[in-house]
Amino acid sequence: MKLSFLALLALITLWTISIPQSSSLTPDGEALLELKSGFNDTKGLLRSWKHKDHNPCGWLGVTCHFPDLRVRSMALHRNSLHGPIPPEIKNCTELRAIYLRANYLQGSIPPEIGELDYLTILDLSSNLLRGTIPPSIGQLVNLRFLNLSTNFFSGEIPNVGVLSSFRNTSFVGNLELCGLPIQKLCRGSLGFPAVLPHSENVASQGAKLVTFHGDLPYSSEEIIKKLEQLDEEDIVGSGGFGTVYKMVMDDSSAFAVKRIDRNREGSDQIFETELEILGSIKHINLVNLRGYCKLPSAKLLIYDYLALGSLDHYLHEHGQDDQPLNWNARMKIALGSARGLAYLHHDCSPVIIHRDIKSSNILLDISLEPHVSDFGLAKLLVGDDANVTTVVAGTFGYLAPEYLNDGRATEKSDVYSFGVLLLELVTGKRPTDPCFVRRGLNVVGWLNTLNGGDRLEEVIDEKCGNVGISKLLKRFLI
Ligand SMILES: *[C@@H]1O[C@H](CO)[C@@H](O)[C@H](O)[C@H]1NC(C)=O
Ligand SMILES: *[C@@H]1O[C@H](CO)[C@@H](O)[C@H](O)[C@H]1NC(C)=O
Ligand SMILES: *[C@@H]1O[C@H](CO)[C@@H](O)[C@H](O)[C@H]1NC(C)=O
Ligand SMILES: *[C@@H]1O[C@H](CO)[C@@H](O)[C@H](O)[C@H]1NC(C)=O
Ligand SMILES: *[C@@H]1O[C@H](CO)[C@@H](O)[C@H](O)[C@H]1NC(C)=O
């Protein structure tokens, strides 16, 4: 009787003591338990990691700082741990050292690891990790030791922050890595492999592929594979806003990929919204924007590929040798371009001012149908209030005098540029042709002097074929 009363008392005492204990594991401990549930701990090595503890300081592999009981180091090398490294590791904000060498860890490095401000040692060598090395590791200013050797990492080693201070011994045996520290050039001129949104770490690294309204009937994998293969040989042009590549899909459809390196200050959100708008604009005489790929270092815009290239090229370079533009073709180009421009001015809401109408922005398809390109880009990339010289360097011949003066683009300045384009079609001369620039004139001034001297026939490009001056005057100049 006495004995059982004592036992009961002991039980009650134990019970009351254990209540407050069970509900107070430190946040570090909670985060480590999250880690544990990610690791497939087949051998039960982490069985000492228990939820009922106050703190994780007695757990296998865990070392704390006293008296604050914050976790300072985690040493779990050679523990046959499977599974991914969960991003919750970032919650142990006081971590100095992570030793996870020689396990079977899978997946990629969570970029959140870059938030561990005090981290000095990171050893993830000899696991099954893959994906790219997150640039966020470069932010770890205290990092002194890094070993990512013998995994399956790929892509370019980001040359940022502290990451650029580690040498080849930190990256041994990752066959698909490239970059400065291991003295291996990254394939192609684009450095694409490093940044394209491959499966796992898509959102986290700021990379993203968007296609508009099923306009690009291929899987993301196929598009990304093709983008990755783009190389210097695929460059088909370069303009004010970036380099243009030709991308050919397996079904031999071709697309133009415009790589834009310059970035307007401001959020990606705005950029994406604007692109959505541009992607929704469809007209037979406008170049179709089919999608884009956003990378930390650049944006890739995917457009229709137009086989005959730009009017500028066709009119002034070798394009004409085999099939010179006759009068009818020029008419067709003028009218089509006008329709495209009119659509931007009158049928889009809000109105789109092109700001850079010129022959190199008129692209021709195989049947010489013109397509206006680069609309919306000036505003998107430079902004409303930008200095005009930064927008259209090199295209002064097309600029309306008032646009040059006050830098404000309007529908009217577009129409002026379009007028210059018409003159270019008629005369076959660039607006900066030496024959009038030498005399201090632009194409408009040149025409005016000829008009005054009744010598207007001289302006017509001989390659036009037979076209009476009266017909021409009726069509264009009156
Ligand atoms: C990690 O910290 C965040 C707040 O910083 C918290 O919301 C989250 O629950 C924590 N996760 C774990 C597993 O403790
Ligand atoms: C855990 O690892 C074992 C041994 O490798 C494997 O058989 C099992 O499927 C894994 N479980 C999970 C949930 O990954
Ligand atoms: C690392 O680079 C040094 C030269 O900088 C070279 O001698 C050494 O062989 C390289 N080691 C490995 C593992 O590639
Ligand atoms: C990293 O680990 C690899 C493979 O175990 C080893 O060869 C290399 O020397 C280590 N690097 C450093 C910096 O300790
Ligand atoms: C525009 O740029 C030119 C040359 O870069 C500079 O001289 C001019 O002051 C700038 N104007 C404005 C309004 O910023």
UniProtKB/TrEMBL annotation:
**The organism's place on the tree of life at top rank:** Eukaryota
**What protein family does this chain belong to?**
Belongs to the protein kinase superfamily. Ser/Thr protein kinase family.
* Cell location: Cell membrane
The record, for InterPro entries, names: Kinase-like_dom_sf, Leu-rich_rpt, LRR_dom_sf, LRR_N_plant-typ, Prot_kinase_dom, Protein_kinase_ATP_BS, Ser/Thr_kinase_AS
Entry-linked PROSITE patterns: PROTEIN_KINASE_ATP, PROTEIN_KINASE_DOM, PROTEIN_KINASE_ST
Q: Which SUPFAM superfamilies match?
A: L domain-like (SSF52058), Protein kinase-like (PK-like) (SSF56112)
State a single Gene Ontology molecular function: ATP binding
**Domain Protein kinase per the UniProt entry, residue ranges:** 230-478
Pfam families assigned to the protein according to its UniProt record, in alphabetical order: LRR_8, LRRNT_2, Pkinase
Give the protein's recorded name. non-specific serine/threonine protein kinase
Q: Name one GO cellular component term.
A: plasma membrane
Binding-site list for ATP: 258
Q: Which UniProt keywords apply?
A: ATP-binding, Glycoprotein, Kinase, Leucine-rich repeat, Membrane, Nucleotide-binding, Phosphoprotein, Receptor, Repeat, Serine/threonine-protein kinase, Signal, Transferase, Transmembrane, Transmembrane helix
Give the enzyme's EC designation.
2.7.11.1
What membrane topology was assigned to this protein in its record? Single-pass membrane protein
Main subcellular location: membrane
Q: Which residues form the signal peptide?
A: 1-24
